[in-house]
Amino acid sequence: MNLKYIKSVLAAVTMLICTQAMAQQDKGVVIDKIVAKVDDYIILKSELEKAYLEFLSRGEIATGDVKCQILESLVINKLMVAKAEIDSVEVMDIQVEQNLDQRMSYFIQQIGSEEKLEEIYNKTVAEFREELFDQIKEQMIVQKMQGVISSDVSITPAEVKKFFGKIPQDSLPYFSTEVTIGHIVKIPEPNDNRKDEVRLQLLDIKERIQNGIDFGVLAQKYSMDPGSARQGGELGFFNRGELAPEFEAAALSMKPGEISNPVETQFGFHLIQLIERRGNTYNSRHILIIPKPSPSDIQETKDFLDSLRTSIIRDSVRFDLLAKEHSDDKQTSGNGGYFSDATGAMRISVEELDPTLFFTIDTMKVGEITRPFEYKMDDGKGAVRIVYYKAKVPPHQANLLEDYQKIRSAALANKRNGIMSDWFDGAKGEVYINIEEEYDHCRILVD
User: Fold this and answer.
1) Does residue 146 belong to any structural domain of this protein?
2) Domain assignment present for 306
């Protein structure tokens, strides 16, 4: 499971909970006001208070004036968004919707259902999405600007060693138990009979549309693409090369208003309607149905993974080579199936493991590989995997030999921070910044 992704989801969820708390706390008694302005972007007092509640909910230890630190962070974000507008650095709404789909899908999966989510928070999924949209778009713009500013930053081994040498001995971090684990994942492939059933279902839906039923109504009812289904199946404008090749070929072969026969892509089967074409961009809508594998399909997948396990154990075939060749988990296959932390190091603290993996390796010895078992991927898809417990490193104080990747990452982040600081010094003079007098003591963006 991608820890970075989970943390971003949980941050969004925490903000939702904080929004609820603020609403119950205020009940209209506190009149909101602007506490800072960066060009045309404002920061409200309620926004500052929500961020402060989020900080408190994480149980972190406060150092200094936390509200001042949070306000400065909010101002910096608005500064980057304002500068992104000046520099024409954009994030498309469709990208935000896709990001929001992933977050909401994960959150709903953890809660249990959309109905349970709405019952707990007394708010519809649509209301949640509306509340989160601008926040997520701002996060994505800030991330994109950070990438633009520091994209060319690199660091040499000599710089890493110098950075490490400047850390006082008594300030070196202490790392808890770390493990190196990997997995090979296979998504069971539905058999031809199940695929034929889906094709017939989509052909029936096509006939109903041709007989007068609205495409959008049937997309909302049947499509298994949650993001576009809410929009009646509409995807918005895309450039050539941005969607699955099979999808694009079918969409661009039609005239506006025409509906395709079922089209198979890596995501499932689509019924596609071209809405409009503008040169190399086009707008389309679709109904996606994903065939479900049968029990025999799942067993066939388990048998295949079991054969890979046998090759590793008996024939000494390298795990990483088989993972790169066969694993359907895009996040780990490039690493030879191994999980990595936020720094890219293929050693993870046991404290950061998701519960399923933690309890899996808790019953294993180093060097063992599990037999195939079913599990849910981050996107909710059912899959089968084998897990390899390669190594375990006991708790230790940071050193260059064992922790080079982590130290390199910290040194690189420090270098990037210096570049970002220089960028802020220049950007401050290009935008209008005004902060309410009551926060003068915070000395926001003052050297």
Assistant:
1) yes
2) yes
pLDDT tens figures, 227-244: 788 889 999 888 888 899
Q: Which residues contact 171 (CB under 8 A, 6 or more apart)?
A: none
Instruction: Please tell me the predicted confidence (pLDDT) of residue 261.
Output: 96
CB 96 within 8 A of CB 136: yes
Number of domains, the chain: 3
d(CA 177, CA 172): 16
For 45, counting Cβ atoms within 10 Å of its Cβ (0-12 exposed, 13-18 middle, 19+ buried), the class is middle
Which neighbouring-strand residues pair with 292?
A: none
**Do residues 140 and 42 share a domain?**
yes
pLDDT, residue 23, reads 43
99 plus 130 within the same structural domain: yes
Q: Is 443 left (phi over 0), alpha (psi -120 to 50) or beta?
A: left
Per-residue pLDDT tens digits for 355-370: 889 999 999 999 999 9
Same domain for 390 and 312: yes
Rounded Cα–Cα distance for residues 272 and 285 (Å): 6
In a domain, 86, yes or no: yes
Spans in the chain with pLDDT lower than 70? 1-31, 59-63, 447
Beta-carbon neighbour count of residue 413 at 10 Å?
Answer: 15
Q: Identify the three-state secondary structure at position 107.
A: helix
Q: Is 50 within a domain?
A: yes
- For residue 164, what are the CA distances in angstroms to 195, 347, 399, 412, 418? 57, 19, 9, 12, 17
Give the pTM. 0.61
Domain that holds residue 247: 192-289
Q: pLDDT value at position 402?
A: 86
Asked if 284 and 319 sit in the same domain, the reply is: no
